[in-house]
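Checklist before submission:
- one chain only
- standard amino acids only
- sequence pasted in full

Submission:
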Amino acid sequence: MVIRRRKLHLALALVALAAAIAPAGATTLVRMGLDDLVSMNESVVVGRVVDIHSRWNEGGTFILTDVKVAVDDVLKGGRGRNGDVTFTVMGGTVGDKTVLIVGGVELEYGSSYALFLSREDLPGAPGVVTVRDHGQGAFTIVETPTAMRAVSQASQHPLLADWKGISEAPGGAEGIELNQFIRQVRDLARAR
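Returned file contents:
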């Protein structure tokens, strides 16, 4: 009787643990600091979205979205100032079909962002420029009563703690004052 009860308690504990881990693992990313984002991405730009177009990938199996940004500033990378950059992200809507990437980057026409970009393989689109770190690689530029701020889109989602034990996105829910963010990213890019 004692052995059965222990097995039952162990089984219930395993079920509870699996239930707690499964949703977190499906939607949670390990937190990346600005230093990680700068070092692991090819370029960092600040700009405004001027075009968004969702489409099926080449094989017709997955929806991708092409985004064009009018660049106001290049914080890292070889592109000149005040140009355009086009990149592709997973997800989007074509007709009545929508692919939603939980924790993915969310961009709106006319809004401004700081974006961490690199070449990656996406479903049916090899070697495209993308925001490879999902919501962690996109900072929404917002105007507050006191200053412009860069707010990580990852602050809207739970993050697993990084190797330093930090689980909050850089700047937290309030973000980082934009000029300070720009200085930090440039300093980190120069240090590499």
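Reviewer check: Residues 31-191 form a domain with the OB fold (Dihydrolipoamide Acetyltransferase, E2P) fold (CATH 2.40.50.120).
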